[in-house]
Write a structure and sequence with these properties.
4 helices; mainly alpha; single chain; about 90 residues; globular; Chorismate Mutase Domain, subunit A
Length: about 90
C-alpha cells in the first residue's frame, strides 16, 4: 500500500479519535451535575485511579504500551476535570 494511502487512513482514524475526545469531554456537564448532586468534589482520585488502571490493563491486553496509554488517559482525565472546573466557574478555559 502506498504511503499516501496509509497516511489517509491514519488521518481518518485521527478524526475518529478527535470525535471521541469531543464526546468524552462533552460529558463533563453530566459528570459535574452528578457530582454536585452527590456532594462530591470535582477531582475524584479513586475514580481517576480506576480509569487509569483499566486503560493500562486493556492496552496491555491488546499488545499496546500500557504506560503510554495511561499517560493519554491522564490527559483525557485532566481535560475533563478542567472542563468541570470551568463549568463551575473555577477554571482557566475559555
Amino acid at each position: 500500500m502506498p504511503l499516501r494511502e496509509v497516511r489517509a487512513k491514519i488521518e481518518m482514524i485521527d478524526v475518529q479519535i478527535l470525535n471521541l475526545i469531543e464526546k468524552r469531554t462533552g460529558l463533563a456537564k453530566d459528570v459535574l451535575d452528578a457530582k454536585r448532586a452527590a456532594k462530591m468534589p470535582i477531582n475524584d482520585f479513586d475514580q481517576n485511579k480506576m480509569v487509569l488502571e483499566r486503560a493500562a490493563n486493556s492496552a496491555t491486553e491488546r499488545g499496546l504500551d500500557g504506560e503510554s496509554v495511561k499517560r493519554i488517559f491522564e490527559i483525557l482525565i485532566n481535560m475533563n476535570i478542567e472542563r468541570q472546573h470551568e463549568m463551575s466557574g473555577e477554571g482557566n478555559l475559555p
